[in-house]
Amino acid sequence: MITMLAMALLIASLATVPARGRPAQVADLYAAAREVSPWWNASAISGEYVSAGAFLGMAGLVLAYGADMLWLPIGAAAGHVVLLASVTAPLRRSGAYTLSDFAEWRLGSRRVRRVVSACVLVIGWFYLLPQFQGAGVTLSVISGLPVWMGWLVVVAAVVVLVLPGGVRSITGVQAVQFWLKLMAVTIPALVFIAVWRLQNDADAARPPYFHRDTTVTADTAAGIHLPAPVAVAVTGVLDGRRHHGERLRLVAGRHRVRAGTRMRFPAGAPVPHTSRIALLRGDRWATPFAGGREHPLAATYSVLLATILGTMGLPQITVRFYTNSCGRTARRTAGLVVLMLAVFSLFPALFGTLGRVYTPELLMTGETDATLLLLPHRMVPGVTGDLLTALIATGAFAAFTSTSCGVVVAVSGSIAQGLGGGARGFRTAVLVAVAVPLLVAPWACSPQSAALVTVAFVVAASSLCPLLILGVWWRRLTPPAATAGIVAGGVPAAAAGLARVLSDPGPGSGWLGTLVEQPAIVTVPLAFVVTVTVSLLTSGQVPERTERAMARMHLPEGPEPGGPD
Fold it and tell me: Which of 25, 234, 422, 503 could form a disulfide with 243 if both were Cys (CB 3.0 to 4.6 A apart)?
């Protein structure tokens, strides 16, 4: 396994060799000198977008919550359509290197720039955290090493790949790694389908049960609910009594286990569930809006709003369109990204469904991110399972590395530009960008990387999205309004995200719990309303250069694709 990981990192390193032939300039660090082709750039964006949440987390969420979770990849693809239609070409024509540059160029305000830079930092750090979490889970599953070593592997890889040349040095990495990740899910998927068909196993529609004798260790004290009586071998404390491996006949209903208690369930036993994940019957698991969440319709609308509008507010995605030679190639790039992500999104539903059959104990432990990593040995034990696990682990680390590289470049760009820019400032900012999420990772309670990624989407949709939409299309936007909108939407979204990351077992119940878990349905409209209202109240502060800026963003470009905008 370690050999395969080393090979993946070697591939990533070799992809950057052509970019190291000359010293990194500012145009290389932030925009790759605007020389990236649409196909190469689309591959890089897709590689950056397929993060820990998409590669591992989506399969785990489908395993736990069923059809409802398919709205996440739908929202991601739709978000790029909105991005393509609304801001890619105008943003590219602005000539800015980062979102902070765009804010200052459009509104002529250093204060707005500082607020946007702070927002970019928060979004980037929220996005990096699940990459570290996913790397820790992957390394722990394939090798048994401590989770924190996975965090360090990703940090080391990112620093090595980003420091030489910023965007120029990571573009090849992310493009190559997207196709590596696609191969790492396509080949196992074909094998899994063949095995499943040969076994003629139609158990995905019934409540999850253990296919073989399975030992589950409780990571925290929790209540479990048994849907039917079962004989279990228990080592530890169950229902207030200590046991030493004896077999007990447990009645259906609720039981209490202490952290560290091991329970061995026999083959055929139904899978208990905890307060973390509600166990769903096959019909409810396969039906949208019938999942085990409160207010599922409102939560789904909130998720769609966050993913569709949050895509254009993700700094590591938006900054990519500055690397195209013109607005026409930027639009072509966005269109290719939609196709590439649509192909990749075919696989999480398959892996989640098979995980419900072959890795049902993850519903009890809550470690659903391990679904894809455990499937090979459950379905095809032996050498074939080893090879498939190695391939999946390689793709997983490619996902963590490529996404983390893009986020670190975007965050470092905002930090460095605030300090005056330059290659030296950028490289110092890289170290700062990876340090904060590395320090927060031990305190994060949510084990699901996809759930953590949505926090970054919510903050982006609630803060930077209104600035981009109104900044590109509305002449009456004012600097005080931009600041007020970012604060009004971004602060509550970030506070809800922090509560979600640090709370255990979750944000609570009822409408308050739903809004803490998925606040976009409130924070996004609030940000737009505040921005428009304050703009109307401060109409005398519209920047003088607004007409010139709008003309630059929207006038047709020259006939030559490589010509000036």
Answer: 234
pLDDT at 189 over 80: yes
- What the block records as the tokens of 330 is 């930027």
With H, G, I as helix, E, B as strand and everything else as coil, classify residue 467: helix
How far apart CA 565 and CA 563 sit, in angstroms, is 7
120 CB-side CA count, 13 A:
33
Q: Dmax of the chain from CA atoms?
A: 80
Name the 3-class secondary structure at 288: coil
Determine the Cα–Cα distance for residues 335 and 491; give it in Å rounded to an integer.
Answer: 32
Tokens 């736990």: give the residue. 64
Residue 516 structure tokens: 């803490």
pLDDT tens digits, residue range 459-510?
999 999 999 999 999 999 999 999 999 999 999 999 988 887 776 555 556 7
pLDDT of residue 319: 66
Task: For residue 320, give every residue at least 6 positions away whose Cβ sits within 8 Å of its Cβ, in sequence order, or none.
Answer: 41, 44, 45, 48, 333, 406
**Length in residues, the chain:** 565
What DSSP line would sit under 169-209, residue for residue? HHHHHHHHHHHHHHHHHHHHHHHHHHHHHHHT--GGGSPPB
Whether the CB-CB separation of 84 and 42 falls below 8 Å is answered with no
Nearest to 407 by CA among 130, 116, 54, 135: 130
The three-state (H, E, C) secondary structure of 53-96, written as one string: HHHHHHHHHHHHHHHHHHHHHHHHHHHHHHHHHHCHHHHHHCCC
pTM more than 0.90: no
pLDDT of 94 reads: 79
What is d(CA 193, CA 177) in angstroms, rounded to the nearest whole number? 24
**CA dist., res. 224 & res. 155, Å (int):** 37
For residues 144 and 128, what is the distance between their CA atoms, to the nearest angstrom? Answer: 23
Beta bridge partners of 255: 224
Question: Residue 146: what residue type?
Answer: P
CA 311 to CA 324: how far, in whole Å? 18
CA-closest candidate to residue 77, choices 340, 407, 454: 340
How far apart (Å, rounded) are the C-alpha atoms in residues 316 and 408?
8
Structure tokens at 471: 């900044």
Tokens of 484: 């007020």
